[in-house]
UniProtKB/TrEMBL annotation:
Organism: Actinomadura decatromicini
Name of protein: ABC transporter ATP-binding protein
SMART domains in UniProt: AAA
Boundaries of every ABC transmembrane type-1 domain copy: 135-304
Chain ranges of the ABC transporter domain: 349-581
GO molecular function: ABC-type transporter activity; ATP binding; ATP hydrolysis activity; ATPase-coupled lipid transmembrane transporter activity
UniProt membrane topology term: Multi-pass membrane protein
Transmembrane segment boundaries: 31-56, 68-90, 149-166, 172-189, 259-278, 290-321
Keywords tagged on the record: ATP-binding, Membrane, Nucleotide-binding, Transmembrane, Transmembrane helix
Pfam families in UniProt: ABC_tran (PF00005)
InterPro entries: AAA+_ATPase, ABC1_TM_dom, ABC1_TM_sf, ABC_transporter-like_ATP-bd, ABC_transporter-like_CS, P-loop_NTPase, Type_1_exporter
Ranges in a coiled coil: none
GO CC annotations, alphabetized: plasma membrane
Length: 590
């Protein structure tokens, strides 16, 4: 059991170091600047005790206050130099820490979204925790460790050098206490990292559980399951509490090592002071200078190392080790995306013998589906609710991997294309339009940075968004998160115009106009059809099928293919859908 625990601790530490080293590599210049300034900061500390000794022995203790004040003035100037050097640390520190944080946020958000797509579920609480609290905590810890590096390196080294120069015997008295404190702290370090990692795991598990309960709150109430759910949450909360208590106990033990190193060494030095003075090894001023080194330099440095720096470093390694596991595909794709030959201006889309099920025990949603969609085609996909229309759209766009078969674009496997090339070639607009906090300009043009007002307004006019622009105040009108203030249909118009501007040669509209009236839906499809690319419409109304060149009827895991008129003649299911539309003399859902 102990061997497994030690192995787990070492693995966490190694993973944290690996992440830190890999991500810090591009910032060597900034880190060298921090290290160099920290070395320079050792000098003021090294001379401070000697200056105090001179002020006492050569000034105040022999009734020469002017000389004493002179040496204290020199000490003040040394302190000013130290403050200037400390302030200079912030510039290279900022150039390292903020880009480090920004890149980590990008990777954590990307990984969370990819996992959500793989699970076909909203991003859980743990992924949100990684991209928000964990990443910001890493930034704060990293900045704290580097900003205070001189407290442990420059101050401690400078104080030891100054103490040794003042009197080697004094350094010999203090050093064993410091070494014993560091050894005790090192013995506790690995266990502290392991318990910090346990804290992270249980907090993510609790966040996942809370997110799941919140999503299912209506079901919980409908099934009168409040007590059972409360018991489950209480168990997870208890696990989080126990993990924090265990980590706090290690923290208490580590804090005791500070007393061994700092207070014990100072008491020992003061206890031996009469002997040191009587034997002529140290003067009264030098004793005060040595005590200054221990009490005001070595003591705070050791306290920072044990109570602050090591604690921050433990948290930093634990969090980076967790993200090392959470971002596996990001590690693999850390380098530049490999170049790929272009697909050509008129890529055709094909699916061969596709099969897909949502689990190994579930019936296949699609089975043996093959279809060829030449460039420039206008295709509608119709079928009963739950027949697999959206699943087919996800497969054609590469958002899901088929259990069998392949999807190809211009003859090349879609799964083998670099993500950026795949996204530039095939665009999917889902039913729930994504509108983020920002201006209308940013929402319309974020796939085409730098688009001019004329281009954006032309797209807005094409999709009937001009009244929205007039109502809100133009392209620079601010939208709150989720597009609050826009109707569901207006949000869909924003998403349609955004994808149109991106110019992908293949556009897939997955009920992307379901909140629009039939006339607006027809107009939106016409805009995409006129642009000359391929248009695939997952139909919400049968009218989309009437307008299409070809219709794919998804039913029972298979596809029937033909024109609207051909399917009316050959497919009872399609006649049923079309008959429902005719019966109501309106475009009914497909």
């Amino acid at each position: 059991m102990t061997g497994r625990a030690d192995g787990s601790q070492r693995a966490v530490i190694r993973a944290g170091w690996r992440q830190l080293a890999a991500r810090a590599r591009p910032y060597r210049r900034e880190l060298l600047a921090v290290a160099g300034l920290s070395v320079l900061l050792a000098a003021p500390t090294a001379v401070s005790g000697r200056l105090i000794a001179h002020a006492l022995d050569d000034g105040f203790l022999i009734r020469r206050p002017a000389t004493g004040l002179f040496w204290l003035g020199v000490l003040a100037e040394v302190g000013l130099v130290s403050a200037v050097l400390g302030a200079a640390l912030f510039r290279p520190l900022t150039r390292f820490v903020d880009p480090f944080r920004d890149r980590l946020i990008d990777e954590a958000v990307t990984a969370g979204l990819d996992r959500a797509l793989d699970r076909d579920a909203p991003a859980p609480g743990g992924d949100t925790l990684q991209a928000t609290e964990w990443v910001e905590t890493i930034r704060q810890l990293l900045a704290s460790v580097l900003r205070n590096l001189h407290m442990t390196v420059s101050v401690a080294v400078g104080a030891l050098l100054g103490l040794a120069a003042l009197e080697p015997v004094a350094a010999a008295i203090v050093a064993p206490c410091l070494l014993a404190s560091l050894a005790a702290n090192w013995a506790l370090l690995r266990r502290a990292v392991e318990r910090q990692r346990r804290n992270i795991d249980v907090e993510e598990a609790l966040a996942d559980e809370v997110a799941a309960v919140f999503r299912a709150r209506r079901d919980v109430i409908a099934c009168a399951a409040e007590d059972a759910v409360s018991r489950d949450l209480a168990r997870d909360i208890g696990a989080a509490r126990d993990a924090h208590v265990a980590a706090a106990r290690i923290g208490v033990l580590r804090s005791l090592t500070t007393g061994l190193g700092a207070e014990a060494s100072l008491l020992l030095l003061l206890a031996l002071a009469p002997w040191l003075i009587a034997t002529g090894r140290l003067s009264g001023g030098e004793i005060v200078g040595a005590a200054f080194y221990v009490a005001l330099s070595l003591g705070p440095a050791l306290s920072f190392l044990v109570l602050g720096g090591t604690g921050w470093f433990v948290g930093l390694l634990g969090l980076l080790g967790r993200l090392d596991e959470a971002l596996p595909h990001v590690r693999a794709a850390a380098g530049p995306e490999p170049s790929a030959p272009p697909l050509g201006p008129r890529p055709a889309l094909a699916a061969d013998d596709l099969a897909f099920a949502y689990s190994a025990s579930a019936d296949p949603v699609l089975d043996g589906v093959s279809v060829r969609i030449p460039f420039g085609a206008h295709v509608a996909v119709v079928g009963p609710s739950g027949s697999g229309k959206s699943t087919l759209a996800s497969l054609l766009c590469g958002l899901r991997a088929p259990d069998r078969g392949r999807v190809s674009v211009a003859g090349r496997d879609l799964a083998d294309l670099p993500p950026a090339l795949r996204h530039r070639t095939v665009s999917l607009i889902p039913q729930e339009a994504y509108v983020f906090a920002g201006t209308l300009r940013e929402n319309l043009g974020y796939l085409v940075p730098g688009a001019s007002n004329a281009v954006l307004l032309e797209a807005a006019d094409a999709f009937g968004l001009r009244p929205v622009l007039d109502r809100l105040g133009g392209l620079d009108a601010a939208l709150p998160p989720g597009g609050a203030g826009l109707s569901a249909g207006e949000r869909q118009l924003v998403a349609l115009a955004r994808t149109y501007l991106a110019g992908a040669p293949i556009a897939v509209l997955d009920e992307a106009a379901c909140h629009l009236d039939p006339a607006a839906e027809r107009a939106a499809e016409a805009v995409f059809a006129r642009r000359g690319g391929t248009l695939i419409v997952i139909a919400h109304r049968i009218g989309s099928a009437v307008r299409a060149d070809r219709v794919l009827l998804v039913d029972g895991g298979r596809i029937a293919e033909g024109t609207h008129d051909e399917l009316l003649r050959t497919s009872p299911r399609y006649r049923e859908l079309a008959g429902h539309w005719k019966e109501h003399h309106a475009e009914a859902p497909a």
